[in-house]
Every structure is written in C-alpha cells, then in structure tokens.
Amino acid sequence: VQLKKVLQGLDSSNTQALNRAGEKARQIILSCAIPSDLEEAIRKAYHRLCAEFHTDAIDVAVRSSATAEDLPTASFAGQQETYLNIRGEKALLETCKKCFASLFTDRAIAYRIENRIDHFKTYLSIGVQKMIRSDLASSGVIFTVDTETGFPHIVLVTGSYGLGENIVQGAVNPDEFQVFKTAFKKGYPALIHKEMGSKATQLIYGSSPNSIKKINTPVEDQRKFCITDKEVLQLAKWAIDIEEYYSRKNGRWTPMDLEWAKDGQTGKLYIVQARPETVQSRKNPHVVEEYRDWE
Fold first, then answer.
1. Crossing angle of helices 15-30/106-114, nearest 10°?
2. Which element (helix H / strand E) includes 62?
3. pLDDT at 70
4. Most buried residue among 107, 117, 218, 284 by CB atoms closer than 10 A?
C-alpha cells in the first residue's frame, strides 16, 4: 500500500519526482524484514553451498534479474543491481533486500512508466552463485550475433581483466574477438579477427569483507590479450551450444547475450549468465538501412 502511494501519478519526464519516489520506495523495502520462510530458505541454501566447498562462509555473487526481462517489446537488462564478493549469511540477507529494492531505481521506474508496465507485475529473481575469482584473471561478455550489423554468423567475445562488472557497465575498453560460426561448426579454428583493448582499469576484491575496488591495470597486462586464442574458441563453442539450445526451446533463432569469467586460482572458464540478445534480434531482417554523409 505504501509503495502504491509513493508511485502513484508519476511522470517519467519529471526526474526530481522520480528521484524522490525511487528513494522512498527503496527505503520502504529496505526497512522491511524478509519473510521468515524465505529467509530460512536462503540461510539453508547458503549453508549447503558452504558445506559443498568445506568452509563456514563462502564468497558469493548476488545477481538480480527481472522476470519480465524477455518481453518482446521491452528489455529490463541492467536495471537491477548485482553485488559481488558477499560473504556470510547476514551480508547475504541484507544484499538480497538491496536486490529487491533495486526494482525501484529511478531508471527502472521511468522505464516501466514509458512502456506502460505495471510496477507490481514485474517480479524479481535473485541468483546466488559462488564467486569465480576473475579478480585474479579475466572476464567478459559474449554475443552470438554481431552487435553492430546484426550479422548472425559471428560470435563476438569481449574480455578484460578483473571482475565482470567493469566490462558490463562499459567502464573499460576490452579486448575483442570474432569467431565465424559457419566454419567453426565444421571443425575449423575460425578466429577471424581480434583487437586489443586498452583495459586500463580492473575491479578486484577490496581489503575489507564484502567489498570490491577499482585499480589501474599494469601496463604489461594492458599490452597483451586477457585470454588465449584457445580459450576464445572454448567460449565460442559454449556460446553456440547455448544459442542452439534456446533456439530449439523457443522454436526460433534466439541469439544470446552471455557473461563469462575465468578463475585465476584454477584457470577454469565459466559461463555465469545467459539471456536473450534484445537489440539486433528485434530488428526486421528484411529491411536494409543505408547511411549517407552529406558533408
């Protein structure tokens, strides 16, 4: 009831009103207790994860995702918060509340108003994953479609050093690799293009619990690629497999937007998130756009 009153009659163009409403809505959620049954379920699941890795408190990523993220006319990607290097059940529970509260960031509220989406019919799920120690290695994003042209036969892999939020937020110029799907599926190591990014900064674990910090990347690391060609091809294979799985499941071509991470302690690669690509895949493939420079 309190949330409905706070959000009633808002105009997406009134940024000051949105700011006040968003802050008030988040305060309401953060001041509430997590329902006891949900809290107990989170505690038990966290203890099972700790037991699996033989520790009393394991560091986890707490990732939020709006369940309406795959609407055909709207994308909720990136509107909710993700928190990294969270350790201990108390910190985990508090972080889960922050994820729930992030349904009401100014950006998320404005977006729902503009797309006429009911604030209370957009739900949020939280994934809790063991942290991949990419702060000691590298991480990045993969698209199974060319993000500039919509060309469907390319896997685009981007990567940089450190935790993935740096590259997801566009805060760093990453390395880029292109793999040609058609030849790759026939068994060829079809890495057809790679370009070194500056990778000037990286996110790593902070010195205090439940914290991360940004540091400058050593110059010698900036001047080399953050992963090997072999690792690029492994990531491309997984990306193609995931794209094919979801395409079969949806009954149509479903290009994917994925996040990957490399563990600096074990050297292993992981896919940590997969969602449908929501820009090029929505364009009409029968329309050609032509641009002219009139200067």
1. 120
2. strand 59-66
3. 46
4. 117
